[in-house]
Structure formats: structure tokens, C-alpha cells
User: Fold this.
Amino acid sequence: MKSNILIIDDEERLSGLLCRILTLEGYHVLEAPTAKAGLKIIEKEDIRVVLSDVKLPDANGVELVKAIKQSRPHIEVINITAFGSISDGVQSIKNGAFDYLVKGDDNDKIISLVSRAADKANLVYRINELQSQILSLHGFSKVIGESASIKEAIVLAKKVSQTDANVLLLGETGTGKEVFAEAIHYESLRKAEPFVAINCSSFSRELLESELFGYKSGAFTGAVKDKKGLFEEANGGTVFLDEIGEMGLDLQARLLRVLENGTFMKIGDTKNTKVNVRLIAATNRDLLFESEHNHFRADLFYRLSGFSITLPPLRERVGDIELLARHFIKVYAVKVKKRVPEIDSRFLRLLSSHSWNGNIRELKNVIERVIILMEEPLLTPNLLPIEVINGGANDMAALDLDSVSKHHIRRVLGYTQGNKSEAARILGIGLATLYRKIDEYKILLN
Assistant:
């Protein structure tokens, strides 16, 4: 079935003729004799194209175009009239009409016009649909939490997302700074342009410089062709610099130039490259302290900190731990093709009593490990890592911690098929500690 078409015309004979013609072409056609009736149909039905008479009993069809486009921008409107005028035609197009047609033109022209209008409306609708999907994956709906501190951070981030201001995200490692950076970008006017992220601590000074600014062929040994840097790749969009506190002072000077006038010079180049990018930076360091001790450029710090947002650690939003845990449980159950399990209340209490020094990232990793190891559709305390169980020992006095630890280690060793190095990694303990626990608990290996 093709698109839904709405004809708004009080002249029954012409409306009926158009309806028959378009129905034969495979369109689903609805009719309305007045603007008011037409607008009611638009509210209820997924209309893609409207053919509206200019002279309606209760409205001017040229002005009706504006009302339709305001409420449903993706709908394409074609004005039709028995008495065409240049002024009406010009105003119709200005109001957003797809075309302005004089009644009496041949039917093939109407069919072709409706087909092109429907194609355009369907394309716009699909683009809007894809943008909604992107927002659900990268927008603020991805930020999970009901605590006052995280809600305050979201409010600030939403406000700044609608501007071009540079943003500095502060907070401990694992608090979700990249998630916030993505959300700010994808809910900004730059959302259709690239979002490029890089962790400044993952590269040496030389590699980071070439990654950020690019180089010309022959600039150094191995530079066999020109390379675009991330700032050039992100032109029109957003660059996210994570762990910016790890960036060397010389590179900070180059970054400051980009922020001040939007230009930089590639390695080995003799002329500047111009870019238009928004910068979002993140750090777990106290940059003010660093700048006061000449470890970070003060001028760059003040450039970056014009709008800063501090993300709270997970231990300060205990009420959100269960929400996050349930979310990650669903995500990883689907990922490993397991049934979403039920959750023992003691399991949740242990999660809530843990300090989570690694914040959301640590919780996420713990849940992933739990889902991999679970054999029954119920999450119980014995699936949790030893450090999480020990952290909640005061609240779980009835739990035999040694028994739980032994069971957990045995389960992990079974999962790794006896690979102790991999088991130690999954358990988050050293290999020597694992050997000691195996001996202490007298765990028999197959």
C-alpha cells in the first residue's frame, strides 16, 4: 500500500474524481470537505500528502498550508484552485507548499506531482525516524538515574546542548562522561555532523598530535600520504577529548589556538587549516589545581571551564544502583542470548552497599560477568565477585562468605575451563591470590 493522501475540497465531484484516480494508483485516499475536518484527520491518521482547494468554506487553503506544516512538517501540501493567481501561487510556496496547481490540468500531471510529493514526505519521515532512533541510542534518554544530582547534571547538559559553547565534564573515572558528551552532541544543532572522540591518555605526545591535527606526506618517516586529523574529520561537528588533563603543555597551546580562531597547522604543512568544531573535554583531575602548579595551561583551563558539569560518583547516587543494574542485566542477557533473570533481593542489597570506586563502569563490568556465569534464571549473591560480597558483609551476616567465595571461584574456573590467568582476570584478583584461594578452599580442578 502506498502513502495516505488527504483531499480537502468541498466540491464533491472533483474530490470524488481525484479520489478515484489516486486510489487506482494504489494510494489510500481520505476526504474532508472543510479545513477543520481535514486538520482532525491529520491529527489521527498518518497522512503524507494533502491536496487542498484554495477556496474552502471555513479557511483559505494557502494559509492552511502554514498550519499543516507547523503541526506536521513532514506532510507535503499541494494547493489546487479553479482560479489561479500569481500572488496566491507565490504565497503558497512561501508557506511551504510542495506545489500550486490549477484545476483542469491533465490527470497524469496530478499523479506525477503526488508521486514526487509522497516520495519527499516519505524521505523526510524516514530521516526523522532515524534521528529519533539515534537519540534513543545516544541522547539523554540513555542516561539512567532518578537521583537529584544526576537530574541536575542532565538539566545543565540539555541547556548547553542547544548552544555552541565548549563544555568541560568533570568527575571520577567511570561516571559516564562520554555518554554525556554524546548526548550533548546528538541533541545539538550539530547532530547531523560527526562526533569524534579520543582518549588523550592512550597516546604518546607525537601520536596524539598527529591524531588530532593530521600531517602532510613526507612530514616524517612513514608519512607516505596526507592524513586528516580528528579536528578536520569532525569539521562542523563535535570533538570529545577525554582525559584532557593528560595532554602535554605544547599540545595544549595548539589546542588553545583552535579554540581561539578555529585554525591549526598540520604536521609538515606551511599553511593553516580552518575548521568549525565544538569541543567537549573531560577529566578526573582538578584542572584548577593543575593550572596553579603549571601542569595545565591556565588560559586553556579558563577557555574550557566557561561551562562545566560535574558528574556525581555512583556512591552518591545509591538509589540509582538498582536502576542501572536492572538495565545492564537486560542488556547483557540479550547480548549473550539468555533469558532475563529474576533477581534475589539480597543480590540487590549487596550491590547497593558496595562502594563502587570504579563507578558505573565497574557496575557494568560486574553485571556482565554475572550474566555470563549464571546458570539458573535467578541472580543470587554467590554470583557476585568476592569484593562486592565482602563489602556488604555487615548487612549480610547470615551469608556464609567463605562458602560463597568458594562457589564463585569454582564457577569462574569452570567457565574458563581451568584457565587460571583468565579466571583471575574475570575475578578481578591477582594470579597469586587465586592460587592461594584455590589452596585455602581446597578447590579440586578437573
Observations:
- The chain has three domains: 4-135, 140-312, 315-440.
